[in-house]
Automatic annotation (TrEMBL):
InterPro entries found in the cross-reference section: Acid_PPase, Calcineurin-like_PHP, Metallo-depent_PP-like, Metallophosphoesterase_PAP
Gene3D superfamilies linked: 3.60.21.10
Name used for this protein in its record: Purple acid phosphatase
Principal localisation: secreted
Residues that hold Fe cation 1 according to the record: 41, 74, 77, 243
Uppermost EC category: hydrolase
Protein keywords: Glycoprotein, Hydrolase, Iron, Metal-binding, Secreted, Signal, Zinc
Cofactors demanded by this protein: Fe cation
Recorded catalytic activity of this chain's protein: a phosphate monoester + H2O = an alcohol + phosphate
Record family assignment: Belongs to the metallophosphoesterase superfamily. Purple acid phosphatase family.
Length: 323
């Protein structure tokens, strides 16, 4: 009964919200819980241990009975897909993540490498016909009865402008003029977060906010996104971009920053010695993350290429909150 009510509220919110973000619905398990895997920076046709990571995701995915998978972007190296008929889609995705437990929706965001190819191809329904798991949108809200996942804020459009535009060409079709596009997306995300009545709030993007990996912090996101996430009590920000596994706790708010960008090439060996926030865990090698959610507990785990549990952390919600 309580769950039904919550679901109704969410539907109403969806219809009345003042943003243009696309809503996707995801069922929880019968007991109201959810579990999912997070992997990023992966598409290399099995190379650099991608296949080994995929195999272990299948094993752990079965044990946790995962409901879906989140990809944090840089889905296809080195330069996204060339078009909807690019065989890399099958060679790096369909024929790699073959385990039974991974035959679930894959909610995927776009990374900077994806923008070096044909972005519209990754967003296309044609890919969904080839492999129905594939769900890649520029930005969306994933509604469940337990959590809302706000995704793919395209924030790398900022960073790419300032840092790497000189060296590569990017497909900006559909997001021009970029400045206005970014301002609008930020406003939409803020408005969606403000309206959210969800127990857990998770935001996913490709780029780091905080990291001690090679890319480090992303100043644009620290300045413009992090304050919004703090204001609206987002529980977790999840990203890839740095090819590592990492858990950083903010010192000034309860938000947890989680990096899962270790789906293939890793071991960069470039680790910064300091971060303004508190680094709980960092692993330079390949692997992935799992999240298990109930009404009052989130369990976060990182696994390596052998399926070994590297790190585990629990977050508790107040059972009797003011709302
Ligand atoms: C694959 O994983 C093993 C174990 O972590 C590691 O020793 C090896 O360097 C990895 N291979 C590559 C190409 O990263």
């Amino acid at each position: 009964m309580a769950l039904c009510f919550l679901f109704l509220v969410m539907c109403l919110v969806s219809f009345s919200s003042g943003d243009d973000l696309q809503r996707l619905q995801q069922q929880t398990k019968a007991d109201g819980s959810l579990s999912f895997l997070v992997v990023g920076d992966w598409g290399r046709k099995g190379a650099y241990n991608q296949s080994q990571v995929a195999f272990q995701m299948g094993r752990i995915g079965q044990r946790l009975d995962v409901d879906f998978v989140i990809s944090t972007g840089d889905n296809f190296y080195n330069s996204g897909l060339t078009g909807v008929d690019d065989l890399a889609f099958e060679e790096s995705f369909s024929s790699i993540y073959t385990a039974e437990s991974l035959q679930k929706p894959w909610y995927s965001v776009l990374g900077n490498h994806d923008y070096r190819g044909n972005v519209e191809a990754q967003l296309s329904d044609v890919l969904r016909k080839i492999d129905q798991r594939w769900l890649c949108l520029r930005s969306f809200v994933l509604d469940t009865e337990l959590v809302e996942v706000f995704s793919s804020i395209q924030l790398h459009l900022w960073t790419t402008t300032s840092q790497t535009q000189k060296d590569h060409t990017y497909d900006w079709s559909g997001v021009n003029p970029r400045k206005q596009y970014l301002a609008k997306i930020l406003k939409d995300v803020e408005s969606a977060l403000r309206d959210s009545t969800s127990k857990w709030k998770i935001v996913v993007g490709h780029h780091t906010i905080r990291s001690i990996g090679v890319h480090g912090d992303t100043p644009e996101l620290v300045d413009q996104l992090l304050p919004i996430l703090k204001t609206y009590n987002v529980d977790f920000y999840i990203n890839g971009h740095d090819h590592c596994l990492e858990h950083i706790s903010s010192r000034s708010s309860p938000i947890q920053l989680l990096t899962s960008g270790a789906g293939s090439k890793a071991w960069r060996g470039d680790i910064k010695s300091w971060n303004e926030d508190h680094v709980n865990f960092f692993y330079d090698g390949q692997g992935f993350m799992s999240i298990q959610l109930t009404d009052n507990i989130a369990k976060i785990e990182f696994y390596d290429v052998f399926g070994n549990l590297l790190y585990s952390w629990n977050s508790f919600k107040q059972l009797y909150s003011a709302t």
